[in-house]
Design brief:
- With 200 residues, the protein is mainly alpha-helical.
- Helix 3 packs antiparallel against helix 6, helix 3 packs parallel to helix 7 and helix 5 runs parallel beside helix 7.
- The protein is globular.
- The two termini are 38 Å apart.
């Protein structure tokens, strides 16, 4: 993935589309690397959903999870392969849970707990984005805006009659994994802070 990203940057440089400095070049390569990984991993997850006959459910799970992960942070693996493996396990587990009895009261409980956790921990900055700490209040506000919208959407799903009944458990499970990812990130962050504190 990194080599492909580097090739794209070299191609753009050869066409005089970009002319970055040596420092900026690394940023370009990193950006393309992340973009390519996101594209290929998302297509891979959607393909898994299609093969399982759950294309729409997979797309919905991915959108909800990506939104929460992007705006509030969550678990980040140390490599693309581990990250993709984690997401594959997550989406396959989601599909498995959808085959089990999942009564409405359980969906409501899981949804409420997930929203409360996401609201309580609206932001966990990745260590690579520590330079954005001054903008944290803005990110918290943006994350909680999303959570409020999700809460209203969940309320509508549970109260208002609609023809998309299969959407309700999918949304509940998506919120659950979003909250789980956030809590793992919170735990990782606290361990990191604790280790740094002990080193002084």
């Amino acid at each position: 993935m990194h080599n492909l990203a580097d090739s794209i940057v070299r191609f753009l440089e050869s066409r005089k589309i970009i002319s970055p400095s040596p420092t900026d070049r690394d940023i370009y390569v990193y950006g393309f690397d992340i973009a390519l990984y996101t594209l290929f991993s998302t297509l891979g997850l959607i393909l898994i959903g299609a093969l399982c006959g759950l294309f729409f459910e997979a797309c919905f799970l991915i959108v909800v999870y990506y939104l929460n992960q992007s705006l509030g942070g969550g678990y980040h693996a140390n490599s693309h392969s581990l990250c993709f493996l984690t997401m594959v396990i997550g989406i396959v587990t989601s599909f498995f849970l959808l085959t089990l009895p999942y009564p409405t009261y359980a969906q409501i409980i899981v949804t409420v707990i997930s929203i409360v956790l996401l609201w309580q921990f609206p932001l966990v900055l990745h260590p690579n984005k520590a330079y954005l700490v001054k903008q944290a209040p803005q990110f918290v506000k943006r994350s909680r805006t999303l959570i409020a919208i999700e809460g209203c959407f969940a309320l509508g799903l549970f109260i208002v009659p609609h023809p998309f009944q299969t959407l309700t458990p999918v949304f509940s499970i998506a919120l659950f994994f979003s909250a789980l990812s956030r809590m793992v990130a919170v735990t990782q962050h606290r361990k990191l802070v604790f280790r740094n504190h002990q080193s002084y």
